[in-house]
Amino acid sequence: MMKPLRLLLLASGRGSHAVNLIEATRDGRLEGTVLRVVSDRPDAPVLEEGRKRGVPVTVLLPFREGARLAPEAEGALRAIVVTERPTLIALCGFMRILRASFLDGIAAPVVNVHPSLLPAFRGLNAPAQAIAAGAAETGATVHFVDAGVDTGPIVLRRPLSIRAGETAEELAARLLPVEHETYVAALRRLQEGDWMSPDQRPLRDVALPGRAPDYRGKVRDLYLLGDQMVLVATDRVSAYDVILNEGIPGKGRVLTQISKFWFEKLGSIVPTHFITCDVARFPAPFSAHADLLEWRAMLAHRVKRFDVECVVRGYLAGSGWKEYQASQSVCGVSLPPGLRLSSKLPEPIFTPATKAEQGHDENIDFDRMASIVGRARAEELRSISLAIYRAAAEHAASCGLILADTKFEFGERNGEIVWIDEALSPDSSRYWLQSTYREGVAQDSFDKQVIRDHLDAVKWDRNPPPPPLPPEIVAKAARRYEEALELITGASVAGGKSPR
Questions:
Q1: pTM for this one?
Q2: CA 307 → CA 11, 71, 490, distances in Å?
Q3: Which of 121, 169, 345, 405 makes an SS bond possible with 126, Cβ 3.0 to 4.6 Å?
């Protein structure tokens, strides 16, 4: 049985899409209710169309020109979403770009219909763009809304041939009924497939009422609580030190579940900062937000961090391979001649790096590390890192995986070394499949390499703003993270199975 939709409609103009969806909920094309029509313009005709049909209407104030809502108007929209609790927000000619912080902080997906076959002809005047480009075909696309302009994952597309000699106005008129039909069909498709689960939507920011994070990293938000802290792994993804506009659905849950698994499995080697991932045991206000935090948040001890990355390599890849080609060594560790890309090393090696607050970490030799943390501590950290790597590599092998390399972070609590941050996740480690491993070539990793490959293919200069990620790249990256979780722990993204 389908779950009835609770629709919130956002519109700026005449309101033909809004009228279409209101009528669809009343004539049987859609099962559900339109809760309210909201407009950013006090003179928008859509407001009267809603009133005539008995639908509550709201104007977002103050009105201002431009691509984005005034902060007060955005706050009013957020309050409406909280009050009305829609299962879906549908844009109906809403001529504003919604901020990423708004989209990620609400509990409902946002969809839009666009008059082209995306990704072609994004933005305004899409029919005119198609005519000017000499396209033979255009159409209508319903897509999820992200922080970009018409860049979110596509739900449904319907084509329409362009007639010879027709004007942009004539094409737009013929497109409108196609848009109406496609919008309803797309919402039915979403309604029929249990799409409303939060795990299926990327959560780039976690908005907890009345509590902002004390620190916001590339992926994790940190909330400090005296001698404890809450770490929340979002679905943000970065490449080349730039946070991308898109998120990877479920990524934060994968990272947290994998870290929890390793902290619990290998905690006998060294104490960890991990306390619990049971949100019910978190202090207020976090314990009241299990819907947002479940499987992606961790309560941990606060420690004094050592400002080094403890990297262990069992195979030659990444920056290690580049350094070996130049000097036949990695971070001052001499290696035998004749090794190739992805070669297994005779023994795992410890290759530390500086801990950079911004930009790339820098590989350093052991003596440099000893000058930072002290020689005795450096030797302890090397010994602990190698012990963890060997134990983790043994488990990975039993799962059909190769743990090529990984990086650890440690701190000090009550005079004792403590393993902190993330533990052997796909973001901090290279995992390869044993079945496809071949020495001498690059391996397919369970990480965001698919994203980096795409960005390299489109020749991005690695400076902001980043280009949009196609939905198929986002989906492929999400699958790689999910596969890593299942292979390593035996659990699913939603935590439905018992770990190994």
A1: 0.64
A2: 50, 39, 33
A3: 121
In contact, 279 and 287? CB cutoff 8 Å: yes
Instruction: Write down the pLDDT at residue 497.
Output: 42
The whole-angstrom separation of Cα 47 and Cα 49 is: 5
Residue type, 387: A
Q: Where are the domains of the chain?
A: 5-200, 211-456
Residue in 17, 114, 180, 395 annotated catalytic: 114
Cα dist from 379 to 314, 374, 384, 395, 454, whole Å: 19, 9, 9, 25, 40
Angle between helices 471-489 and 251-266 (to 10 degrees): 20
Q: What is the dihedral of CA 167, 170, 172, 176, to 10 degrees?
A: -160
The pLDDT, as a whole number, for residue 1 is 44
User: What's the distance, CA 461 to chain centroid?
Assistant: 22
- CB count within 10 Å of CB 123 equals 10
Beta-bridge partner residues of 232: 221, 297
Q: What is the pLDDT of residue 384?
A: 98
108: tokens are 């409902």
> Comparing 3-17, 83-97, 198-212, 476-490, which segment has the lowest mean pLDDT?
198-212
The domain covering 211-456 belongs, at the CATH homologous superfamily level, to: ATP-grasp fold, B domain (3.30.470.20)
For the chain, state the CA radius of gyration: 26
Half-sphere exposure of 330 (CA within 13 A, CB side): 26
Find the range with the poorest average confidence among 31-35, 71-75, 199-203, 397-401. 199-203
Q: Give alpha helix (H) positions in 337-448.
A: 366-373, 375-398
Which homologous superfamily does the CATH classification assign to the domain defined by 5-200? Formyl transferase, N-terminal domain (3.40.50.170)
d(CA 439, CA 461): 30
395 has catalytic annotation: no
- At a CB cut-off of 8 Å and minimum separation 6, what does 347 contact? none
Check residue 319 and give its pLDDT: 87
Measuring CA to CA, which residue among 8, 83, 11 is closest to residue 46?
Answer: 11
Report residue 71: phi and psi, to 5°.
-55, -40
CATH topology match: 5-200 vs 211-456: no
362 pLDDT exceeds 90? no
Tracing tokens 């993270």 back to the chain, one arrives at: 481
Note the pLDDT tens digit of each residue in 111-165.
Answer: 999 999 987 898 889 999 999 999 999 999 998 887 667 777 788 889 999 999 9
